[in-house]
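Chain A, query sequence.
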Amino acid sequence: MTEKIGLYWFRKDLRLQQNESLACLKKKCDRIVFIYLRKDNDDPFSSIYDLSDAEISGPKKRRFVDEALLDLQRNLRKVKQELFVLSSEQPSLNTMPHSSDTYGVDIISHIVKVLNIDYIASEWHCGVNEINQWQSVCQNLAKSHPELEYISKNSGLLYEQSDFPFSIENLPQNFSPFRKKVEKYCSVKYVEQQPDEQQSMPALPALPDDFTRLTFYRLEEQAGFEHEQGSGKLIGGETAALSQLHYYLWESDCISRYKETRNGLDGWDFSSKLSAWLAHGCTSARTIDKELKRYESQRTKNESTYWLFFELLWREYFHWNMFVHKSRLFYFGGVQDKRPSTTFSEATITSWIQGETGYKIVDACMKQLKETGFMSNRGRQLVASCFVHELNQDWRYGAAYFEYQLIDFDVASNFGNWQYLAGVGADPRGHRQFNLEKQTQTYDPNMHFIDKYLR
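Chain A, predicted structure.
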């Protein structure tokens, strides 16, 4: 009997646990090849002014992804497998430009051909570019390999479309009715794995010369770091994600105080810091929810533990909102098709980026972002409000800078939140302007945060 060979394509799902696409592929295949396609060069900082449809990444985000890939590679090697990180610069293979929807088509087509792949799998993602990318690969391969089968499961979100008590076309226009319906009618379904499943993996097939001629990205040589563990740092990878989840719940009990501390501006323990690992799929919302429920049943259940689930629901809403509205999430008029009155001044945008607006709380937050690749949820609301209302700038440029700089950039949450603040998104009030002086007195009354970053 001929062995079945599978190809697993990692994208925004850099983990082995709670990964339904991978679990399905393992059941169907005798051998598997794991790949990740990595762009070679940092995106230029100036590209935030181009409003390109391709994701832009600064060095801090790229480092986090490289750390996650190295951790994934090490975890695969523990089960006698290998992660092949392929360079996007393949002169012998790629004849088309790397647009958001064709990136990777030729590389994957080549691998499918030389390895006689039977199944190709990747996690489903709500993003416009991610959906177009997957569809482009499938459509291209359908012509040359009609027998090829595809696996694309959603295990990065809490729910499936079929779980909702409404059709996805009738997704509530704002968060509150969505939350109430979901909490009443939906339950999270986990990817169940037997303990021995995590310790086993189909073997790697024999690799012909045509495969080894591909350009590989050597993680250990290029990354230039050791994979650290422990709390206090945003370190990419599933290992660090699970370590932080355990720390925030079980080691520190910080989760039990989350509702009181969540508006902090600086430090490690005021929030879970799980957003970076969620954004790159190093862990999943279902993994967090499952562990949170275990914590509530074994230790304590209160408003703070609920509030972490509440934040997961916000993320969930933004993801399905993007799935419904697609490219409208990037339009100037937003999902409401309501064009705000703004100006464009590169000098003003630059002053905001550099933390030189004259609004101290905003400037401190922007310098924190530039220095660390992180900004608190409260800080993001304040700097976005300032950008849109005090500075009167086009919200899309602020969103693009966040995309470039934030380690935890998540396309649906980022653009959903920016539209929310700009009054063109999923917001019934339509105008969210913060009093920056009042916010400073409330959240940094002794100026500790401001003094730290405006030193």
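Residues 179 and 322 are 16 Å apart (CA to CA). The beta strands are 5-10, 31-38, 83-87, 119-121, 149-151.
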